[in-house]
Amino acid sequence: MTKQELENRLIDFAASIILLTITFEKNYAGNHLLGQITRSSTSPALNYGEAQSAESKKDFIHKMGICLKELRETFVCLKIIEKANLSTDHESLIRAKTEANQLISIFVSSIKTSKNNS
Q1: Contact 64, 36 (CB under 8 A)
Q2: Cβ(24)–Cβ(86) under 8 Å?
Q3: How far apart are alpha carbons 57 and 60 in whole angstroms?
Q4: What number of helices (H) and strands (E) belong to the chain?
Q5: Please, are residues 99 and 13 in contact by the beta-carbon 8 Å criterion?
Q6: Taking Cα atoms as reference points, which of 29, 17, 18 lies closest to residue 84?
């Protein structure tokens, strides 16, 4: 996968989460998690863009680590939303969890490779 393909995948993931939030229950928990997951799911695309302009290998690994952290936060948030039945779109929720998990695996592997090449 090229850098551009991964960036596009992260952008698509963020957009899919934003669209998923439209289906959230309109209550305190739904509104809280809507804001939380919007921030955590859009952060990886933005930080990945920054990682491409990293000033050093250490800076690159750090920014990639932030992407990974935010993806893990998004994944846990999706699990909470699912358990609490805060979304009416269960199919999109399952797809989002699958994509988050795949992106997490990509970033774990990329960070490991970058550390080994340092």
Answers
A1: no
A2: yes
A3: 5
A4: 4, 0
A5: yes
A6: 29
HSE on the CB side for 58, CA within 13 Å?
0
User: How do residues 28-74 score in pLDDT, each as one tens digit?
Assistant: 999 999 999 999 999 999 999 999 999 999 999 999 999 999 999 99
Query: What are the residues facing 87 on neighbouring strands?
Result: 24
Cβ proximity of 81 and 33 under 8 Å: yes
SS3 48: helix
* Confidence (pTM): 0.95
Q: Give the CA radius of gyration of the chain.
A: 15
Are the CB atoms for 101 and 78 separated by under 8 Å?
A: no
Q: Nearest Cα to 83, choosing from 73, 93, 68? A: 93
Instruction: Evaluate whether 34 touches 17 at the Cβ level (below 8 Å).
Output: no
Return the structure tokens found at 39. 């921030």
111, 68 in Cβ contact below 8 A?
Answer: yes
Separation CA 56–CA 49 (nearest Å): 15
User: Are 67 and 107 a contacting pair, CB within 8 Å?
Assistant: yes
